[in-house]
Amino acid sequence: MTLRRTALAGLAASAALTASGAEAHHAFNMYDNAKYVPLEATVVSFTWQNPHAMLQVVAAMPDGTTEAWTVECSAPNIIGRRGWSAKSLKAGDKVPLVLHPMKNGAKYGLMVKVTTPSGQVLNDKM
After folding, report:
1. What is the pLDDT of residues 27-70, one digit of tens each?
2. CB 3.0-4.6 Å disulfide test: which of 5, 71, 103, 125 passes with 55?
3. Phi-psi region of 119 (alpha: psi -120 to 50; beta: other; left: phi over 0)
């Protein structure tokens, strides 16, 4: 009976750890998903790695100033199925993009879509 309880306790602990790891991430409530911010931007860097691909850009603002933005994309395995690759964007590319901004006003957003210099539209959160 003790061996059976030990085995069941081990299985329960494994299940709890696995579930909590999967559930602990991917809260997007810090973004204002009702807002869509379009930017005309120049790519500074594009990082293709887990847990999220990341894009650093400098955006040209209507008043002539520039703003540095960080844009979070989905995981490479997700956006890869949507046509993205590690070579989709590179430093120096001038791209229009749309993002959901942070609710707190930080220059950080969640990628909606970007159009590559070749004209390919890459969707993420559409």
Report:
1. 678 999 999 999 999 999 999 999 999 999 999 999 999 999 99
2. 71
3. left
d(CA 89, CA 71): 13
Q: Which residues contact 49 (CB under 8 A, 6 or more apart)?
A: 76
What does the block give as tokens for 113?
Answer: 């879509």
What are the domain boundaries of the chain?
Answer: 37-123
Q: How far apart are CA 98 and CA 83, in angstroms?
A: 17
On whether the CB atoms of residues 79 and 73 are closer than 8 A, the answer is: yes
Residues 101, 89 contacting (CB under 8 angstroms): no
Eight-state DSSP code of residue 51? S
Q: Is the dihedral of CA 3, 5, 6, 8 positive or negative?
A: positive
Question: Cα–Cα distance between 83 and 110 in angstroms, integer?
Answer: 18
